[in-house]
Amino acid sequence: MEEILSKAKYWLSDVFDETTRKNTQHLIENDKKELEDSFYQDLAFGTGGMRGIMGIGSNRINKYTLGKNTQGVSNYLKAQFPKKEIKVAIAYDCRNNSKELAQIVANVFSANGIKVFIFSDLRPTPELSFAVKHLDCQCGIVLTASHNPPEYNGYKVYWEDGGQLVPPQDKEIVEVINSLDYNEIKFEAKEDLIEYIDLEVDQAFIEASLKNVNFQVSRKAKDDFKIVFTPLHGTSITLIPKVLEKAGFTNVFIVEEQAEPNGNFPTVKSPNPEEPDALKMALKLADEKQADMVIGTDPDSDRLGIAVRDNEGKMSLLNGNQTMVLMTDFLLKEYKAKYGFKGDEFIASTIVSTPMMEKLASHYGVECKLGLTGFKWIAKMIKDFPNQTFIGGGEESFGYMVGDFVRDKDAVTATLLACTIGAQAKEKDSSIFQELLELYKKHGVYQEKLISLVKKGISGAEEIQQMLSDLRNNTPTDFNGTKVIAFEDYQTSERTNLETDEKSTINIPQSNVLIFYLEDGTKVAARPSGTEPKIKFYVSTHHSLEDTSDYKVAKERLENKIDSVLSHFDF
């Protein structure tokens, strides 16, 4: 505690403004628990940039932690591009304080002589990724905490290819940031270097989105297809209605109670389209309007949740894996019909997402590249293999990317793609749900489940590390009677065949991820969240499907199997 107190007392110095000093003193005198959590560590970059609770301290999002980040990024940019006019694009979402924090970030960049393009109002994260390349910038910043609770905010850094930071830039920039003191931050803006942007970039992004989802659907089919859309109080309200309208979808019903951007997210417990509760109001409206599809996006509009009518006419929520395989199969089928495969095409996913992506790749004769969690790794694949054609890719956590004009998950374009798939299916007297069943009949039913355990604070972080350490050092030989045949440790980059004791190297960057393969084809993964105080467990299993009418029985069998596997853990 002495070290924490010493760290906090530095925030009483004249390096910090009066309000910060006053609030720090209040914590020291009145709230030791909050003081400890606010200062016990420096907020770190995870799988989706830096996210944290807003407040005072080194473990919080505030003008000083973000100012220090931005000063470090500025120093690094100037070292990397000594002979260029350096340009940075900045966007922000609907969260409380996002606009003010974005302005502070813009001020620091400009104070360092860097040209800044900043959106004058909130915009989706994928548009920022697009803007970096469109405006020929070396870097991009978006202020967002995605689907985290209202008290959070965050800071994501993009590089000149439009993708988020990856090695070696990420570690190099963190080293520069960590070498700085707060008194080195330049906060005084050079106003002539700050330019506000909006409509020109909006239009370019919309045109690119429409170009990448340009598939044959009749005017009548688009008119007949009914869509309920909710932005969940987030940024997608600025673009998705326009994109759908320009694409010719006229039957769009917006959940008005959730249309207004609001960082408090007043109508939902969590603005997370992964959570069924988040789409309750949209599902209600869908039944009133007899809609074919519900789409909800998270606050920064990079992820989407989808519900469609099942074969009994009821709205059924799709999980992220199901949405991903539907979109990928559609893109592969359309690409094959339009161009034919030349042998250089690939799709992409993550090591904790459904193995059905690999099945699809094999079926179409294309490559499926797998990476760690986070779309920055898919963007890196595109960058690392410029002679290959990226068609589409996603991950289980409700994100998808269509083509490479955006180098991050993109709920705007994915929404258009989902509506296109749905309208095309309806036009041929099918449905998205039926199309999914047909895929399962062809490739087998894949069933997945994610368990997330929240472990807050210092003790929570220690508990997460202990749980992973126990799994790593005492490798299970079975999960409730089903034998483990292989084990992958991404921290040591080693795969072990437990039947032969043969070891091999995993050619994926190191990460604290463990994956177990069972003799019946089930896969179990464990990893700490890179954006929240959580440990996550993923289970995937599959079974053949003789006829689509057998789906319910097959699904129930697989769900029971997953529950049996998870009973191994003492949750």
Automatic annotation (TrEMBL):
Which N-terminal residues, if any, form the signal peptide?
A: none
Xref: Pfam families:
PGM_PMM_I (PF02878), PGM_PMM_II (PF02879), PGM_PMM_III (PF02880)
Q: What's the family?
A: Belongs to the phosphohexose mutase family.
Keyword presence, Magnesium: yes
User: PROSITE patterns from the entry?
Assistant: PGM_PMM
* Alpha-D-phosphohexomutase alpha/beta/alpha domain ranges (all copies): 44-181, 204-313, 319-440
Tell me which UniProt keywords the record has, alphabetically. Isomerase, Magnesium, Metal-binding, Phosphoprotein
Task: Tell me what this protein is called.
Answer: Phospho-sugar mutase
What is its cofactor? Mg(2+)
| Metal-binding found in the keyword field | yes
